Amino acid sequence: MRINVIGGGPAGLYFALLMKKRSPAHEITVLERNGPDDTFGWGVVFSDKTLSYLKENDEETYAEITNRFETWDNVDVVHRDQKITIRGNKFSGIARIELLHILQQRCQALGVDLRFRTEVSAVESLATACDLLVGADGINSTVRQTYELHFQPSLSVRQNKYIWYGTNQLFHGLTLTFRETEAGVFAAHSYKFNKLTSTFIVECDPETWANAGFEGMSEDETRAYLAEVFANDLHGYPLLSNNSKWINFVNVRNEHWSAPGVVLLGDALHTAHFSIGSGTKLALEDAIALYKCFGETEDVETALREFERVRKPIIEEYQEAAYESLVWFENVKDYMSLSPLPFAYKLMTRSKKIDYENLKKRDPQFIAAYEQAGS
Ligand SMILES: Cc1cc2nc3c(=O)[nH]c(=O)nc-3n(C[C@H](O)[C@H](O)[C@H](O)COP(=O)(O)OP(=O)(O)OC[C@H]3O[C@@H](n4cnc5c(N)ncnc54)[C@H](O)[C@@H]3O)c2cc1C
After folding, report:
1. What are the tens digits of pLDDT across the range 155-207?
2. How many CB atoms are located within 10 Å of the residue 232 CB?
3. What's the pTM value of the predicted model, to 2 decimals?
């Protein structure tokens, strides 16, 4: 089979390597506009479940990833300068660039043709030159736009602003920090992903953003302002930029998941708010799901139909939970009057995926403290 993949992010690379491993006779080309060392973002997170899928499907990349990652089992909620720890939430983090290098090297070892610094604009001619065209080209997907009559995408831009930073302050667990200032409420989502660095995402509502005056600020002024807001959390470490800019989260959905001989994967196909887990996890799991469908049949249209049938309900459920979570963060100022324990409980149960019983199983001590605080 001849497969062209547009986009050398986690979805495109992982799908390419899995298909090539299964059948070295497949001719697989990945076209990526950036160089092998260019990336945005900082660390990416995986749940234990995602790691078990990675192990099942390719031991080699699993071993490389787990050699380099950091793990934790706590969510820490910081509110009114008090830290509440909730255990039983096992996650791992790795630098996005390290993950990409691992996947690139595995692709190369298996004989996938990786073409960096190759911008694709003529999508249709690439599609006719192969049996399967994979649009793994991220949130602003050209493939999705080219075939929009087939995919029928809907994109909804959310109101909150957020910005991805790194920092050398290590957060040993997924740490959700809330700081109330004169401008409004700021939330930070942070976690370490190697021995020296943490991801540090700051989010705020549009009123807070306007009150703070970010519109007229330079990148350095913005970093300095936010470092001041989170001074008690960063302990003097600066925020590190990797071309970091304020953006709005965009919820991407597609009514249909394929056009004849063309399929979307990862962020091109769907997004889920970062507060519930990373897009990288979903991108890798998409790649596995599509690869499995080609294990059942070599017929492209049958495999693509099966991919949508099997994977779409899982993604829809995930997006629903992610939606509840993003709405919670959009309305966080309404919860700021709660004291730290009830605030942490509300936060943990925001997506309805985790309830009282579930939390009690994960961390009975937290629930005992919560009940005591309420009595
Ligand atoms: C600014 C930013 C920072 C982020 N930081 C983090 C983070 O720190 N942690 C985290 O877990 N998640 C982060 N995310 C989310 C995460 O990057 C995505 O959810 C995940 O990477 C999705 O994987 P993907 O393979 O579907 O797409 P991507 O990783 O976006 O990969 C798509 C690839 O396609 C390439 N491409 C696009 N169009 C073309 C074209 N026409 N021709 C050739 N190549 C093309 C792009 O260069 C890119 O390499 C971030 C997202 C953004 C926008």
Report:
1. 999 999 999 999 999 999 999 999 999 999 999 999 999 999 999 999 999 99
2. 10
3. 0.95
Q: What is the DSSP string of 94-133?
A: EEHHHHHHHHHHHHHHHT-EEE-S-----HHHHHHTSSEE
Which residue's alpha carbon is nearest to atom 37 within ligand 1?
137
Cα distances (angstroms) measured from residue 237 to each of 208, 356, 372: 24, 37, 36
Pocket probe for ligand 1: among 14, 91, 96, the residue whose CB has the most ligand atoms within 8 Å is 96
Contacts 24+ apart (CB under 8 A), 57-61: 57/18, 57/288, 57/291, 58/17, 58/18, 58/21, 58/106, 60/106, 61/14, 61/17, 61/102, 61/103, 61/106
DSSP string, 10-79: HHHHHHHHHHHHH-TTSEEEEE-SS-TT---S-EEEEEHHHHHHHHHH-HHHHHHHHHH-EEE--EEEEE
Ligand 1 centre to CA of 283 (Å) is 10
- On the CB side of 361, CA atoms within 13 Å amount to 5
| Alpha-carbon gap, residue 290 to 269, rounded angstroms | 13
Asked whether 100 and 108 are in contact (CB, 8 A), the reply is no
Q: How far is the CA of 42 from the centre of ligand 1 (A)?
A: 11
Which residues lie closer than 8 Å to 161 by C-beta, 6 or more apart? 203, 204, 205, 206, 209, 214, 246, 247, 248
Give the span between the Cα atoms of 215 and 75, in whole angstroms: 32
pLDDT tens digits, 107-120 = 999 999 999 999 99
Which of 137, 244, 270, 275 should be mutated for ligand 1, with most atoms under 8 A from CB?
137
Burial of residue 287 (CB within 10 Å: 0-12, 13-18, 19+) is buried
Tokens for 80, please give them.
């009114």
Beta pairing partners, 46: 92
